[in-house]
Design brief:
Layout (H helix, E strand, L loop, with lengths): L1 H46 L12 H16 L12 E12 L6 E5 L7 E2 L6 E3 L6 E9 L5 E4 L2 E4 L10 E5 L23 H10 L4 E5 L2 H31 L5 H27 L22 E4 L1 H12 L3 H11 L5 E12 L1 E15 L9 E7 L22 H20 L7 E7 L7 H8 L8 E7 L9 E5 L7 H9 L5 E5 L8 H5 L5 E5 L18 H20 L26 E3 L8 E6 L4 H4 L7 E5 L2 E2 L3 H8 L7 E8 L2 E8 L5
Parallel strand pairs: 5-8, 8-9, 9-10, 13-14, 13-15, 15-18, 16-17
Antiparallel strand pairs: 1-12, 2-3, 2-11, 4-10, 5-11, 6-7, 12-14, 16-18, 19-20, 20-21, 21-22, 21-23, 23-24
Helix pairs in contact: 1-8, 1-12, 3-14, 4-5, 8-12, 10-12
Length: about 675
């Protein structure tokens, strides 16, 4: 009995000790998680603060963010003396454009008679557009209607057919035909891409034009008049309300009465201005210099916006009919009315100054140890965002700071957390691990594209890249992972590791997608891309730190840490696999498939390639990474917009000659286009 009692007491004591140890372990784990969540929250809050200006390129805020990330890497003990003793891989990008001096921005239209010449007034009846480039010209004029070339199904319409516009200036109407016809082949009353400035200019460039003169179409004048009348009516209504408010303010004090009178005076002045505009019938506005976008536009091909009342007389003199009549003809017959303007020439010059900003990737390394130490695993996240909006914003009407807490302060904070967890073990990994905070992702993967062009460690020995972009909004454990098919072991790796996490994972085998992992996959490096999904605050000023799911972000960070450590410690490097892109059903008229990956980090005249899809038309035709396409069929190519426009002139199965710049020489190749994908 005594023995049994003693044994029972011993077992109870052991259980109490074991339970105490477990409780202590759980408490320590909980304390560690709380500390990690605090770090993540602090990092996101700092990165997404107003003081850091949405980490927009060209702001002081993005430089503060870069220095913060560099300091954090250094505090962890990572090696950061990688680029001239610093962690920064510096380069320049074009951020904005400005107009050069007036003497370098001029335009004169000269006709066959002595009195037909007119020197236009800058800002009054013409303005250059930043969407175009710089250069001088003195060339014949050609009217090309809406400037459309379409060989799409159910929309074969070519306003350049039978015309030679090489080294000539083309006059192009805004928008497209039959805008008020819901049954129009031009997508009813909605715009097709042919209505966009970029497509019109690309088409003119492809046909060899020396300059472009854009002009408002008649429907734009109607729209402007309606808007002017609506604004005037609203101003009158507001003025009446202000007057009524003054009449009703019987008991108001002198100060309030003075405010009401000031308000009436302001509203009266606005009403007077709008009335004058209506009386003057000033409904032909010039698109301002930056009004069509294009800070990263082509370097050549001057583009101007010209008043309709300047162009209309010369069109009538040369063609016998004014613009309104010609537009009505096109609407009725859907037949081009393009023609040379015999005897008319355009002489002018545009000076578009591209302003550049210094940008930087932030890079740190944890060296490996052992026989695999020369192999590299990269962990990345972009730290830039949209600054004060503009290009890329889904709230383009505002100049509020776009803080980008989820996109991508969350990924940056998670990158730092992954680095802390890996370095805190005190053990060297089998493979080198490189941590990179990329810049310029929002401008077209600029930072990652720069790194793969100028890698700090050889890409041939870079075995994988793991990317995090928008990992701060985990909902219902739903996690999205791209790249599961890019290596032979990756699909199983995700399943095995997720057994401890219980994420509801949506897998995408492809290694391509709208984030920095694409730059590495284009170089035949296996990749993972992890994110928690989009939301209503995406690319809007409302993407703030108080909406971040910090515990969820911690779980994602732990999951990514396990992924990185597993790849870094594996006996064999993951074997790259090409994931074939599946063809998907497309609406009639989409362009055929070429299979190229653009390199936005190169500012060249042409279409620069980061890579080509394996087995695609470009690959089969001999194109490769580093090539710059300068001619596609008969089309000159100066930008991404040009190749998109040129492709739409062909169909699947067509064999097209392609000229590329390669190592400073022109190389001619032939591609056979595939169906749309």
């Amino acid at each position: 009995m005594l023995v049994a009692l003693l044994l029972s007491t011993t077992l109870v004591g052991a259980a109490l000790i074991r339970d105490g140890a477990c409780a202590e372990k759980e408490a320590a784990k909980s304390e560690s998680a709380a500390a990690a969540e605090k770090r993540l929250n602090n990092d996101v809050t700092k990165l997404a603060s107003d003081a850091w200006e949405g980490r927009g390129i060209g702001t002081e805020g993005i430089d503060k963010a870069a220095q913060f990330i560099a300091d954090q890497f250094a505090e962890m003990g990572l090696e950061t003396r990688l680029f001239d003793g610093a962690p920064f891989q510096n380069f320049k990008v074009t951020t904005e454009a400005e107009m050069g001096p007036p003497e370098k921005n001029h335009l004169t239209l000269m006709g066959p008679g002595e009195k037909d010449s007119e020197k236009l007034k800058l800002g009054e009846n013409f303005t250059p557009l930043s969407l175009g480039g710089s250069g001088a010209f003195d060339v014949p004029l050609v009217f090309v209607g809406y400037g459309i070339t379409s060989k799409e199904k159910d929309l074969e319409y070519d306003e350049y057919a039978g015309l030679d516009v090489k080294e000539k200036a083309v006059i192009i109407l805004r928008k497209e035909p039959q805008q008020n016809n819901p049954h129009s082949v031009f997508n009813g009353t909605d715009n097709t891409p042919h209505a966009f400035f970029t497509r019109k200019i690309a088409n003119a460039y492809e046909h060899g034009a020396a300059a472009v003169l854009l002009v408002n179409d008649v429907q734009e004048l109607v729209n402007q008049e309606k808007a002017g009348k609506a604004a005037f009516d609203k101003a009158v209504e507001d003025l009446d309300k202000a007057i009524d408010a003054l009449r009703d303010a019987k008991d108001a004090g002198p100060e309030d009465l003075a405010k009401l009178r000031d308000e009436i005076a302001q509203k009266a002045e606005l009403t007077k201005e709008l009335a004058a505009k209506l009386n003057e019938r000033d409904f032909d506005p010039l698109v301002p210099f930056s009004g069509a976008g294009g800070a990263n536009g082509r370097k050549t091909l001057p583009v101007f916006f010209v008043s309709r009342d300047v162009v209309d007389p010369l069109i009538k003199q040369a063609l016998g009919e004014d613009l309104k009549t010609l537009e009505a003809k096109i609407d009725k017959t859907l037949e081009p009315v393009s023609a040379p303007l015999d005897g008319w020439t355009a002489k002018g010059e545009a000076d578009v100054i591209r302003k550049q900003s210094d940008v930087k990737n932030v890079v740190a390394v944890l060296d490996g140890e052992g026989p695999l130490a020369d192999e590299t695993v990269i962990v990345g996240a972009h730290y830039d965002h949209l600054g004060y909006g503009g290009q890329g914003s889904l709230a383009p009407w505002t100049k509020d700071i776009h803080n980008g807490a989820d996109d991508n302060a969350s990924g940056t904070a998670a990158l730092l957390e992954v680095a802390r967890r890996i370095t805190s073990s005190g053990k060297k990994p089998a493979r080198r691990i490189v941590f990179i905070a990329f810049t310029g992702e929002e401008r077209g993967l600029l930072g990652s594209a720069r790194y793969v062009r100028e890698p700090r460690f050889p890409l041939s020995n870079t075995v994988a890249m793991v990317n995090m972009d928008m990992v701060g909004r985990l909902v219902d454990d739903k996690l999205i992972v791209y790249g599961t098919g890019t290596a032979d072991t990756f699909d199983k790796l995700i399943d095995d590791l997720n057994a401890d996490y219980g994420f509801k994972i949506t897998k995408h085998p492809s290694g391509f997608g709208p984030s920095d992992h694409s730059s590495f996959y284009a170089k035949k490096i296996p990749v993972f891309h992890v994110f928690t999904g989009t939301h209503k605050d995406y690319h809007r000023p409302s993407d703030d730190a108080d909406k971040i799911n910090v515990p969820g972000m911690l779980r994602v960070s732990e999951f990514v840490t396990d992924i990185v450590e597993t790849i870094a410690g594996a006996e064999k490097r993951p074997e790259y696999r090409e994931v074939k892109r599946e063809a998907v059903a497309q609406r009639g008229g989409d362009r055929p498939y070429l299979g190229t990956i653009p390199d936005f980090s190169q500012e060249v005249e042409g279409y620069a390639l980061m890579g080509v899809a394996e087995g695609g038309p470009a690959s089969r035709g001999g194109l490769k990474s580093g090539d710059v396409i300068v001619k596609f069929g008969e089309s000159k190519i100066g930008s991404l917009e040009d190749i998109d426009s040129a492709l739409r002139k062909y169909k699947a199965g067509d064999k097209v000659p392609v000229v590329v710049k390669r190592d400073g020489k022109d190389v001619t190749l032939t591609v056979t286009l595939d169906p749309p994908r």
